[in-house]
């Protein structure tokens, strides 16, 4: 191609300007890109493994604290008595405690009853107002009432385990044991206090024990732990303090019925290696009424939770409701 000198110069100038324009554009684009990156994207420097572990630990601790805080809030919401609204008579009606009991109570007494219920898990307010020797329905199968037992049976030591139980519940357990166990079979009662912090279980309980022991010295023994040992060690403490050939271990929120001891002691007399569990009915937590439970065996699932089990076919075939359930 033939070009004049002027044309060559013009072309060269255009190429140079074009190149400079491209460079300027690239610089501008680069500057804009870098600016955007600096605003929206913070490029992190490489982090050491130690730093990552520390950050991970901090995160887990924060999550744990949040979980704990959430549980505390939930517990507070569930346990805190609702505030009185415009109509005080309707206060606390959403609590299961008042589903079948306490509708006639004043708002103030409802508040007190609910507070005790939240602390003990049962209606301690009502328990404090029930007599220690209240009557109980005899729910034994009719065949059991007609049984006869050997005259010479081994004595029994009854051990009650408790921590922060309501005093009236403990006293009713003791009183029913004394009242409904033949005197010649009940050697002693042992109370194992697994380090309760309820002041009522110290001076007032000791006063009751002293009154009973004034008529029958040493009949009630009290074992107090200096620290909380748990259910199994508490039972061992009671067993060690017992002096009778048979030891019966119970929670301190029970009530004994007539004829409970003789069949138990008879089975053990037949074979001293036996471990016997009597049949339990239910004391309803809200109104303390007695609810009959069907005859059943006691067993455990793989998580070691106690379960009431339907008797096996071999037991039903005996057609004898007085027979023990293995």
UniProtKB/TrEMBL annotation:
Membrane-crossing residue ranges in chain numbering: 9-31
Pfam families: Glycos_transf_2
The keyword Disulfide bond is assigned to this record: yes
Keyword terms, alphabetized: Disulfide bond, Membrane, Transferase, Transmembrane, Transmembrane helix
Domain Glycosyltransferase 2-like span(s) in chain numbering: 157-295
Gene Ontology BP terms: protein O-linked glycosylation
UniProt keyword annotation of Metal-binding present: no
Domain of life: Eukaryota
Protein name per Swiss-Prot or TrEMBL: GLT18 acetylgalactosaminyltransferase
Gene source species: Molothrus ater
Gene expressing this chain: Galnt18
């Amino acid at each position: 191609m033939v070009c004049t000198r002027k044309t060559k110069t013009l072309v060269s100038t255009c190429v140079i300007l074009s190149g400079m324009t491209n460079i300027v554009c690239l610089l501008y684009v680069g500057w804009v890109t870098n600016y955007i990156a600096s605003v929206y994207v913070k490029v992190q420097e490489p982090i050491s493994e130690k730093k990552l572990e520390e950050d991970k630990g901090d995160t887990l601790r924060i999550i744990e604290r949040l979980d704990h805080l959430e549980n505390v809030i939930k517990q507070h919401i569930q346990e805190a008595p609702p505030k009185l609204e415009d109509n005080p008579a309707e206060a606390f009606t959403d609590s299961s405690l008042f589903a079948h009991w306490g509708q006639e109570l004043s708002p103030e007494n409802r508040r007190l009853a609910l507070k005790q219920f939240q602390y003990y898990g049962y209606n301690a307010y009502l328990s404090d107002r029930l007599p220690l020797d209240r009557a109980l329905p005899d729910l034994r199968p009719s065949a059991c009432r007609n049984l006869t037992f050997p005259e010479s049976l081994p004595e029994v030591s009854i051990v009650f385990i408790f921590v922060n139980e309501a005093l009236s519940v403990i006293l009713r357990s003791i009183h029913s044991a004394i009242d409904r166990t033949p005197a010649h079979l009940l050697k002693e009662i042992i109370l194992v206090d697994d380090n309760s912090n309820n002041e009522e279980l110290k001076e007032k309980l000791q006063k009751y024990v002293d009154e009973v022991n004034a008529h029958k010295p040493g009949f009630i023994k009290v074992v107090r732990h200096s620290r909380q040992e748990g259910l199994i060690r508490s039972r061992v403490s009671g067993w060690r303090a017992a002096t009778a050939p048979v030891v019966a271990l119970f929670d301190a929120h029970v009530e004994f019925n007539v004829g409970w001891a003789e069949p138990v002691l008879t089975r053990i007399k037949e074979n001293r290696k036996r471990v016997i569990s009597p049949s339990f009915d239910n004391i309803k937590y809200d109104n303390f009424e007695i609810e009959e439970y069907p005859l059943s065996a006691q067993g455990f699932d793989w998580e070691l939770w106690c379960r009431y089990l339907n008797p096996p076919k071999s037991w039903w075939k005996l057609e004898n409701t007085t027979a023990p359930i293995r």
